[in-house]
Amino acid sequence: MSYNPLAEQANAELSANGCSVLSMLSEKGKAIFFPRKGILGQGAEAKGKEINATIGTALEDDGSPLVLDCVLKSLNLPKQAFLYAPSFGNPDLRKAWKEQIVRKNPSLAGKAFSNPVVTCALTHAISCAGYLFLDPGDEVIIPDLYWDNYELVFVNSCGAKIKTFNTFKDGGFDTEALKKALSESKSQKKVVLLNFPNNPTGYTATEKEAVEIAKILTDCANAGNKVVALLDDAYFGLVYEDGVTKESLFSKVLDASENLLAVKLDGPTKEDYVWGFRVGFMSFGFKGATEAQLKALEDKAAGVVRGNISNGPSISQRILLAAFQSPEYLQQKAEKFAILKKRYDIIKQVLAAHPEYKEAFEAMPCNSGYFMCVKPKGVDAEQLRQKLISDYSTGTIVLSGLIRVAFSAVPTDKLGKLFENIYNCVLEIRG
Question: What is d(CA 16, CA 283) in angstroms, rounded to the nearest whole number?
């Protein structure tokens, strides 16, 4: 197949010196490029010129953006915030987020990985990953307790197949099931998605489990397979127990093998509580990666963004950058974390104080995140959900036969009532 010269250039970098990353890309991933010589490139050449009639913005005669005063006043932002962001994202925000990744994952210090490319939040980052790495019919290996939007992204949009493996065993992550799923996959390219803290269960791998997961992925890659590890870190940092891995799996597999491409999908949506800002990031790394190869992956990711949404919201990116630079940022973030940690602790106390609840439901392993799940006993989960809504004024979510509760959204003084309602509702249905 013939590709655009810019795509060919990036592909050449990703296959140089025996690099195997090109073979991990989908056909669309191989064909995508960042259009440096198109409208954006021509606009860049005209930047700073006396007359610049290249870009589709509207400016005042003094060169500042045309902005409605009523909009400007409501946001209290400089006019520059209304301009387009680059398809790669605000460069200062990208730098700041990479610095945060290293700060939150100290073992990454000194290791080479790409600059993050800004996406329109995590779902868009996941969708971009699907674009880059999945052809119709390809498999995505995922734990069987997963966020249902993966189906829309991978199956409906990419035409891929989801292959699941058992999530839990003996109260922890089933690493052997992951190993078996990889060995049973008939394709030499293995695309694996791991999500910690997990949605819907609120479980994060222990440090021991994380080391084992990394070894499984590395061994698979070293056996000659091409492994793409998609690491959905949407709820990163929200860990409430000791012994649970505090770092992303990205830090453990980043430089594990030339045949293992680590793709970190993260953002401030959950951990910085800016759900409506729609800002996410994609970062790449693999053993022996050169600066040019990492840049080629950035270009391809930015090409997907450009061809999909053009660029993410500039206003959100500027607000976030200002927040990250604020001297109050870390303290305020810790205060909000404490609220979620308190709710988690109360749930543990409630369940411990009511052993009778085990007659009605089983609490699934949970140690982090926004959610936890219970498995109802002797009743249909959907029937339970509907009755909780109609008779107990309690809203929950059904996923994979489990009842998911977002304790992140429940007032502290109502957490006890939440589980009491679930217990009583199960007993009522049973009659």
Answer: 20
Other CB atoms within 10 A of residue 51 CB: 6
| Token code pair at residue 56 | 């589709």
Q: How confident is the model at residue 141 (pLDDT cuts 50, 70, 90)?
A: very high
pLDDT in tens, 254-292: 999 999 999 999 999 989 988 888 999 999 999 999 999
The 3-state DSSP class for residue 226 equals strand
pTM of this structure: 0.89
Do you find a cis peptide bond into 197, omega within 30 degrees of 0?
yes
User: How would you write 47-78 as a 3-class SS string?
Assistant: CCCCCCCCCCCCECCCCCECCCHHHHHHHCCC
303, with CB counted inside 10 A (0-12, 13-18, 19+), is buried
What is the C-alpha separation between 181 and 198, in angstroms, rounded?
Answer: 19
- Given a cut of 80, is residue 48 above it in pLDDT? no
Paired strand residues for 260: 227
- Residue 142 β-bridge partners: 164
Q: Collapsing DSSP states into helix, strand and coil, what is residue 301?
A: helix
Q: What domains sit in the chain, N to C, each tagged with a CATH number?
A: 5-34+87-325 (3.40.640.10), 330-430 (3.90.1150.10)
* Distances 291 to 13, 74, 295, 382 between C-alpha atoms, Å: 10, 42, 6, 51
- Residues with Cβ within 8 Å of residue 407, at least 6 apart in sequence: 340, 343, 344, 347, 370, 371, 372, 415, 418
Phi, psi angle pair for 146, to nearest 5°: -140, 160
Let me know: does 35 contact 5? Beta carbons within 8 Å.
no
